[in-house]
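Put briefly, the fold is written as integer tokens. The lines below illustrate.
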Amino acid sequence: MTDGSRHQRMRELPPPWPGDRYEVLCQRPAPYPGSRDQYHFAEYAVESARALEKAGLVTRVAVIRMADDTVIYDPVAGVELPPGQW
């Protein structure tokens, strides 16, 4: 094996999945701690938030766009941006 081929194998590869852009913040009833999950696609983040809320697993849930900290979904605060603004 040559030195050149060894260095080629050691180069880091980019991740095969896209970076996260949205965060789902959950507050849960005591004694359970809150949670944070990150998603690349807003549709999946909002779908997850709505499912957690519908199942009664959270006391409060919000979806935040991480690039500018904009809340795109928070039913307690009355925030539900239309999909075009996600």
